[in-house]
Structures are given as C-alpha cells and as structure tokens.
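The records we work with from here on pair a chain with its fold. Taken together, the tokens spell out the fold as the letters spell out the chain. The record below shows the convention in full.
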Amino acid sequence: MVRESPLPQSKSGRQFARTLIGRGLAMNQAPNSKYWLELFHAARLETDKKKRLDCVEAAQKAIHERVRELTQESNESNDSMEERWLIDVALMNLRSLLEHPAAA
C-alpha cells in the first residue's frame, strides 16, 4: 500500500505550512492536540518583548509535550505526519522570534 505524503512536493513548502497553520490541524484530532498551536499563534502575535519571550517559552514547552504524546501514540497516519511537520515549522519560527525579536 502506498501512502500519500502530507509534505509538499514543490517549492511551496512555506505556503503549505502557512495554509496548515492558518487552518489549524485536522478536525478529527483531540482538542488538546491543538493547544501548542494556539500558544504558537499567541507568540507570533505578541508585540511586547517580555511577553513574547514568555509566550515562546510556553509554546515550546507545549510543543515538546505534544511531541512526547505523538511518540507514545506511535501513529504514522497522515494527520500525525502532518502535525509533526507543522511542529518542525513552528519550532523554527519560534527560534527565529527569539533570534530576531525586532523582525516580528
């Protein structure tokens, strides 16, 4: 059986990530699985430097907790693979917010 990859096959990876982040994750996932995404959005939108740092730290903590949950589930569904890819993108964006706070 051939599985369809949820990852983009073209150069539009950033656009793909924006689309996924913008619409959230698959609707059939448990509500708690989206908590990290809400914190990620809060960190991206925060303009106060001190509050942004707190938001980034909270988002990173929630993301790492979600990664542990996904590891325990050991689910290789497309939804799980999509979320893992989204998590990678979110972590890169959070690191960027920390390294370049004025750019946001």
Q: What stands out?
A: The chain has one domain: 30-103.
